[in-house]
TrEMBL record:
Belongs to the EXO70 family. It comes from Cucurbita moschata. One of its GO terms (biological process) is exocytosis. This is Exocyst subunit Exo70 family protein. Residues 204-543 form the Exocyst complex subunit Exo70 C-terminal domain. The gene is LOC111463131.
Amino acid sequence: MTRHGKKLFGLCSKMLSPLVSPICSNSLSSSEAASVIHCQRFSESMIDRSLQSAAEIITKWSIESLAYAEVTSMFNQSKEEGLRFIRCVNELQKVMYLLASEKLEYSQSLMQIAMKRLQVEFYRILSVKREPLDVESSLDRVLVADLRAIAECMISSGYTKECAEIYGNVRKSVVDEAIYRLGIVKISSQIRKMDSEAVDFRIKKWLESVNAAITTIFNAERELCDFVFAISESVSESCFTKACKDGAMLLFAFPEVILKSKKSQKNVFYLLDMFTAIIENWQRIESIFSFESTEVIRSQAIASLSVLTGSISTMLSDYESFVQNDSSNSLSVDGGIHTLALQSMDCLSLLAEYREILNIIFSWWPPPWKSSLPADSCSNTPDSDGSPVSSVSSYMERIIFILLCKLDSKARQCDDISLSYLFLANNIRFIVWQVQSSKLHHLLGDEWIAKHKAKGKQYIDNYERLAWGKVISTLPENPMAALTTAEVAEVYDNFSSSFKEAYQKQRSSIIPDPKLRFEILAIAKSWLPMYREFYHAHRFPVGQETEPNSLPNKHNPDG
């Protein structure tokens, strides 16, 4: 007798024994007593009819004498026939508890034939669609309903192991194939041989695929398992874990593999994107992998978040040191925007896009402040109250503060002081513009912007005084005052030489900001009204160069 037969025979004997020996009825539970009453009322003819009906359809669809390739799908041929088959098997399962031993062997044999058929049907339906099945989709609803009916029939008949094994094997291959098609592959054994371009390609593929893997593949598999195995949560758990564990571990281990290999390009934005992909899906991850047996998957996701947090924190701290230790002396003679300012502000503007993610990272693992700043007027470092948001704002403010200090030290290398102030004005205007036009505005605020705009105005005022002050000083305070011919000539000579000197110094200057360019042009022309007034008061009539009020045409400000 098989394991199924022994189990049924034992229960059947216990249930039928009161019919033979009523004295034993006191040992039955209330539910067993109810079953006994049912047994007593169940007529022999009804049992025989149920047995005969089950035998007809089970033997009709028997696969005992057929090769697997010859087996056609019962559910494909006739949906109604497939459901009738399951109903008959379920009825057979019920009457087996009521059969005498001589008929139990036969019904048990029928059950084995039926289970072999259902195993084939289960496998065939599972294999029809090699992609995630959607329990809510009208296209997949029939398939998943058939799977559920078969699963419930097999489990209630004692064939849980066989049902779970078929489901787990088929769906695991489907999940693994879907993960592979997304471009997520095992690279732990290959990564040390991969060049940086290949690593970057794999990171990009992972970033493109992670959301689809979580929301489409794993979420769909969890919903499918829950629906098909609604009769048993433990079976649902074991089947889901077998189908998805390897693929999920491969997915969530990827960031850790990349970082531990030390083959990444140290691109902090890749790391931030990977962190974002996991943290933004965390509620889904916890919901999908909520089983005790999938705790290892959640732990792997947390491990990747941890190494990403540490690496990002370290890289941000290292970037501060990079700005602080910049030793480039590439201060151009045009006073334009320095490369360090361009690179730093581009980087900070992009980092500001991740401010909410950085809040989380800083709350877990705030970066150590590495820089030691010079003890001068530039070292009034920004404060932080220690909160994550404040820490992110403080980090951004601190980097810009260090950048301004570095630009100030570079400006001191300039031979012409006026050009150094133009250099500082250009750079601080660029920095303020970058803050205003990016998410840095939200982190640093209006007060910071107003403060640094004022500092930029000071630089422009200093530039005006040093670049054009000497030119303006050559003109008399009162342009209309009476002067001798010699005095007028001296004014023109001094003005001409100082103007030429200033012009030669400033002619190569670059001012990228149109507004600043307009302001500088206005400064350069601020002397023009005074000069025009002096010219009209002291110009020489033509042919009377010795007259005090005559002037050569080359000095004509209107010419």
